[in-house]
């Protein structure tokens, strides 16, 4: 009962935990649904193909339409976070950094390039782990190209923010990943520019001189930028001859390349930076004529390439130099030419510079009317420039606002993803607890079952042992009564009958002893024992009774089995306590037949009956009789319990004058002993 009680309470506890886990799980799902509906929406439509399509489109339009590009990046980033796609998440951050770089939001660019770099490293780490786990794993993409772009962005952003040491570290790391000569040359040029910005001109020169690059005929832009970089460095080192020679060679190389001459922003920026840095050094050293010559070289080149804005700026600078020299007519001439060029171009900044320089010269030379007219044009250029600046600031703020929305969405998606993971982990833990409890219940149940079986087996073994003990008790009781019969013949000095009796008695003893070890014996063996026993009892009491044995012919005595020595005690009681005391000769009938699924053994005698027999018994006889009957009842009780059968004995008086009728009901089975 105790194991069952323990299982019951463990089962109740497991059910309680299961219901509690289900309730918590439902509540958490509702909470996640309420707090991050967008996460669920995004998760339902997230797939790698759409992510790649969105990012590819953003890549194409990021320069012409950055707003549309950011919309694509926003959707792709959210889906990448949901899918835990580190590679495409890194691509999203990389494109965000490039858009930030375009509007010169360098802090935002640095943040996004950093995230992109981390995601590409994570992607590579995950690939290595997966390849180690399974040889059949195929990487979804190699992030080396994107990783190098992220490193370039990190270095450039740090450079623009004045964080030169960090910029150098990123460029050095990038140099270990570059494979082509052009990539290595670009990296060394960038390192030289960082040292130059730091004012470390010796290291800048080393980096520039170490560049080994043979330019292609179709693209001389990198070679031109290297020459411009060296020219700047030599200018800062006061090696002006080398500086001017390198700058002149740079312009000649650009002219010589003809149609292949680069007009890209990096080359134009390189030309302008080199020219301005060299001009600043020349002006600082008072070499104003050399400065003017330098700028005229630039003007000639820019006129050839129709870069009129830069021509106007250089003429303004030349005008300022002439004014510094006191050559006012030349200064006015250059300023007027700059203003004239500014009138032909749509560049408010260049117009503003040209008109202001000319108006100031007119004012200083008392040409008031012309000064006022020019100041008016300057004012218009300023207003136009401010309007363009406002538009640019508005577009910039819109792009920043879009990016803030992207950051908010990515946070929302990350929170939703984190909550889902926590929820899944909680559910998993609860499931483990439930499964653990179920396992414990099963273990307890199995243990209880085996304990119960062991107890039952032990109980059965004890009962069988008791049954064997009871059978063993029958033997001395039977032998004692039989020896009394032998003693009777010896006392009568009937030697012949005694010898015959002993012969048949020994045969009976052999059968009894052989069968006493068995729980069940075939009916024909029991019949043989009963026949011999009745024969022996009839020797002694032949003048007291006759007997008759009737067995139904339909009964198979060889296949049906009965417990040994179960019938004999009732026959013995009939002879010794019923027939022996009868004054006239009596009769004993032993019948065996079928009745309602039972094998019935009927023992009928016409002796003095149970009531009169009880009156005649001595105290000693009463003791033996009660012990024998009790023994039989215990045997039947144990047999019924062990073998799950229904043996029973019914004893009734034959009639009022006397006689006893005993009916032993034996269940019909051929395999009781199995």
SSE topology:
Blueprint: H1 2-35, H2 37-45, H3 48-61, H4 66-83, H5 86-102, H6 106-133, H7 144-160, H8 164-177, H9 181-198, H10 201-209, H11 221-236, H12 240-256, H13 265-284, H14 288-304, H15 308-325, H16 328-344, H17 348-364, H18 368-491, H19 495-515, E1 521-522, H20 523-540, E2 545-551, E3 561-562, H21 568-579, E4 586-595, E5 598-605, H22 610-616, H23 619-643, E6 648-653, E7 660-667
Parallel strand pairs: 2-4
Antiparallel strand pairs: 1-3, 4-5, 5-7, 6-7
**Shape annotation:** rod-shaped
In CATH, the architecture of the domain at 492-667 is: 2-Layer Sandwich
What's the CATH topology name of the domain at 492-667?
Answer: Heat Shock Protein 90
Q: In oligomeric terms, what are we looking at?
A: single chain
Low-confidence regions: 28-37, 135-141
What is the structure about, briefly put?
This protein is an alpha+beta fold and 674 residues long. It has 23 helices and 7 strands.
Your description of this structure?
The strands form two sheets. The protein has a five-stranded mixed beta sheet, covered by helices on one side. Strands 1-3 form a two-stranded antiparallel sheet. The longest helix has about 120 residues, at about 370-490. The radius of gyration is 60 Å and the shape is rod-shaped. The protein has about 675 residues and is α+β, with helices and mostly antiparallel strands. Mean pLDDT is about 80; it is low at about 30-35 and about 135-140. Strand 6 (about 650-655) and strand 7 (about 660-665) form a beta hairpin. It contains 23 helices and seven strands. Helix content is about 75%, strand content about 5%. Among the domains are: about 1-35 and about 425-460; about 490-665, 2-Layer Sandwich (Heat Shock Protein 90).
């Amino acid at each position: 009962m105790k194991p069952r009680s323990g299982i019951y309470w463990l089962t109740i506890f497991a059910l309680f935990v299961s219901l509690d886990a289900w309730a918590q799980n439902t509540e958490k799902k509702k909470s996640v649904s309420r707090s991050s509906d967008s996460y669920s929406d995004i998760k339902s439509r997230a797939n790698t193909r759409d992510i790649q399509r969105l990012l590819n489109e953003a890549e194409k339009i990021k320069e012409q339409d950055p707003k549309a590009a950011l919309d694509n990046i926003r959707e792709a980033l959210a889906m990448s976070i949901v899918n835990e796609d580190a590679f495409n998440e890194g691509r999203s951050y990389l494109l965000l950094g490039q858009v930030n770089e375009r509007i010169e939001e360098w802090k935002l660019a640095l943040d996004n390039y950093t995230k992109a770099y981390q995601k590409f490293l994570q992607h590579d780490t995950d690939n290595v782990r997966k390849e180690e786990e399974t040889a059949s794993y195929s990487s979804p993409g190699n992030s080396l190209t994107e990783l190098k772009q992220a490193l370039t962005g990190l270095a450039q952003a740090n450079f623009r923010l004045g964080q030169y040491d960090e910029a150098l570290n990123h460029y050095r790391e990038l140099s270990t990943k570059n494979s082509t000569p052009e990539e290595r040359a670009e990296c060394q040029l960038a390192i030289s520019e960082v040292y130059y910005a730091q004012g470390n001109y010796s290291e800048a020169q080393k980096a520039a001189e170490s560049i080994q690059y043979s330019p292609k005929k179709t693209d001389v832009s990198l070679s031109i930028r290297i020459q411009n970089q060296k020219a700047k460095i030599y200018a800062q080192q006061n090696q002006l001859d080398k500086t001017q020679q390198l700058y002149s060679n740079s312009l000649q190389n650009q002219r010589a390349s003809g149609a292949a001459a680069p007009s890209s922003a990096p080359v134009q920026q390189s030309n302008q930076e080199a020219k301005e840095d060299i001009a600043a050094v020349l002006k600082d050293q008072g070499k104003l004529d050399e400065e003017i010559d330098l700028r005229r070289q630039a003007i000639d080149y820019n006129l050839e390439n129709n870069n009129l804005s830069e021509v106007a700026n250089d003429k303004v600078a030349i005008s300022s130099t002439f004014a510094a020299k006191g050559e006012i007519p030349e200064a006015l001439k250059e300023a007027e030419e700059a203003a004239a060029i500014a009138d032909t171009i749509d560049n408010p900044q260049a117009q503003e510079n040209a008109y202001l320089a000319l108006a100031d010269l007119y004012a200083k030379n008392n040409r008031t009317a012309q000064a006022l007219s020019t100041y008016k044009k300057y004012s218009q250029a300023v207003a136009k420039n401010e309007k363009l600046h406002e538009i640019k600031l508005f577009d910039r703020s819109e792009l920043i606002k879009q990016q803030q929305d992207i950051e908010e969405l990515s946070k929302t998606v990350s929170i939703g993803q984190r909550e889902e993971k926590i929820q899944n982990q909680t559910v998993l833990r609860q499931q483990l607890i439930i499964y653990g409890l179920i396992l414990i219940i099963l273990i307890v149940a199995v243990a209880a079952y085996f304990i119960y079986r062991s107890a039952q087996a032990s109980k059965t073994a004890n009962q069988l042992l008791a049954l064997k003990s009871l059978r063993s008790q029958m033997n001395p009781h039977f032998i004692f009564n039989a020896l009394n019969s032998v003693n009777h013949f010896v006392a009568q000095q009937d030697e012949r009958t005694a010898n015959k009796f002993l012969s048949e008695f020994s045969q009976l003893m052999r059968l009894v002893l052989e069968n006493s070890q068995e729980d069940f014996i075939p009916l024909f063996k029991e019949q043989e024992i009963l026949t011999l026993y009745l024969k022996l009892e009839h020797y002694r009491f032949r003048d007291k009774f006759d007997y008759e044995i009737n067995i139904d012919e339909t009964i198979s005595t060889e296949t049906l089995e009965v417990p040994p020595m179960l019938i004999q005690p009732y026959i013995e009681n009939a002879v010794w306590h019923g027939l022996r005391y009868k004054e006239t000769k009596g009769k004993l009938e032993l019948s065996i037949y079928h009745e309602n699924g039972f094998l019935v053994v009927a023992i009928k005698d016409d002796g003095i009956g149970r009531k009169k027999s009880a009156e005649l018994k001595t105290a000693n006889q009463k003791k033996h009789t009660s012990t024998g009957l009790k023994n039989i009842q215990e045997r039947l009780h144990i047999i019924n319990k062990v073998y799950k059968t229904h043996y029973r004995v019914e004893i009734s008086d034959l009639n009022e004058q006397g006689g006893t009728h005993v009916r032993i009901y034996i269940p019909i089975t051929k395999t009781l002993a199995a």
